[in-house]
Amino acid sequence: MTETVLPPGIDCGTGMAPVHNPYTGEVIASVCTVDATAIGTIVQRARRGRSTAAALSRATRASVLERTARLVERRGESFALLIVNEAGKTITQARKEVARAVNTLALSAAEARRNAGEVVPFDAYEGSEKRQGWFTREPLGIIAAITPFNDPLNLVAHKLGPAIAGGNSVILKPSAHTPLSALRLVDTLIEAGLPEEIVTVLNGGADIGAAIVSAPDVRMVSFTGGFATGEAISRAAGLKKLAMDLGGNAPVIVMDDADLDAAVESCVSGAFWAAGQNCIGTQRILIAREVYKPFRDAFVARTKLLRVGDPFDEHTDVGPMITEEAGRATRMKVDAAVAQGAVLLCGNELNGSLYAPTVLEDVPATCTIWQEEAFAPVVVLQPFESFEDAIEQANAIDYSLHAGIFTSRLDRALSAARLLEAGGVMINDSSDYRFDAMPFGGFKYGSMGREGVRFAFEEMTQPKVVCVNHLGDVR
């Protein structure tokens, strides 16, 4: 018998949708869904939440977020098991996600207390000598937050934490694959003292998503997901702020002076963490020709040691993809690359939703697997002739989140940091390193705004200037 999960404050009627375990395929819960006919009620609730949120003091917002962080930490194993059950992450990876979510909530609490605005030095400018003032950071109002399946707890925390810290209300639409972690986090926020109407959680299809995005009362859409959906949101949104993380195709450069053992270990983790379902996961590894063969051989050998299987098993390294369909689509892309001349070094084996870590070389630059985000445990190895050649290949894609370089030369590392067109450059780390306090977002096509708690907080608030003109001398 499966659990029926109801979001707080929403009348779902008879709409229900199943949530499946990606590894077993079994239905683990049913969640209540709504369609676009409910948009009026939803926006009305969010308006009430907006007024309630704006009235909360910074101390209250911070205290709620701090208490939530402690509750999630105390219940960490329960949250981790839920992530494994609905997202298919291995238990080790799920525990790390919970720890990151605790940090995200704590950082959000600190931002509520800290980031209140600044003094503006009006009297530093001629003609304003008798003026003084400041600016505050005020809530935008209603934030629409749309989250993906791959980090079902921490990416929700990255939307809710800064929004609540800034005094906003939120309409949250989590992935249909992984709504349970989001619902449990919202329940925990309410338990910690957040007024219930401040966050409205919706489960449903594209119609309710489009209705939320286009609602005039919504002042910002914060979206993490794919390019096609991001484009649709930007067309439908109208005059409001947009913040989007739309994926990547991360390159990592391995120079001839790199520590190859460290580079192999880091890149294997970077490529296959969370079954490769990671927007900053390492996808293209560009290797100096002088060290290409030893790197390739060591990388393939290390990849073959990874255990693929039951994500609840402590010894599993790579769990399932989110659906069997995702696994089949990945294998089709790899087969197409091989048909065009790519060489398969290992992997490309599919068993249900389990897709074996896959390594390719000699992939033509015209292949989908080279040009587009794989979002799967697939990595491409490619030699280069010079540093300039490596940079050119790394930058050849139209969008970019993170990049990495392994080198022992400081001058090369700093040159790469300057020349790589990416939102983050990881030196002697794979592309998938992320700390929740740093700015996070993409370069080039589709890049809009930044996450990372402080930066999301500032995206979700607006400055208000107060200026006092001293008309006479004060005695």
Q: What does this protein look like?
A:
39% of the residues lie in helices and 22% in strands. It has 15 helices and 22 strands. The strands form six sheets. The protein has a seven-stranded mixed beta sheet, with helices on both faces. Helix 2 (58-74) crosses helix 6. The chain is globular. 50% of the residues are buried. Pfam families: Aldedh. Keywords: Oxidoreductase. This is Aldehyde dehydrogenase.
Explain the layout of strands and helices.
Elements: E1 3-5, E2 16-20, E3 27-32, H1 39-55, H2 58-74, H3 76-87, H4 91-114, E4 117-120, E5 131-139, E6 142-146, H5 154-165, E7 169-173, H6 179-191, E8 199-201, H7 206-214, E9 218-224, H8 227-237, E10 241-245, E11 250-254, H9 260-272, E12 282-288, H10 292-304, H11 324-339, E13 343-346, E14 350-351, E15 354-355, E16 358-361, H12 368-371, E17 378-384, H13 387-394, E18 399-400, E19 402-406, H14 410-419, E20 424-427, E21 443-444, H15 453-459, E22 461-469
Helix pairs in contact: 2-4, 2-6, 3-4, 3-6, 4-5, 5-15, 9-10
List keywords for this structure.
475 residues, alpha/beta, seven-stranded mixed sheet, five-stranded parallel sheet, 15 helices, 39% helix
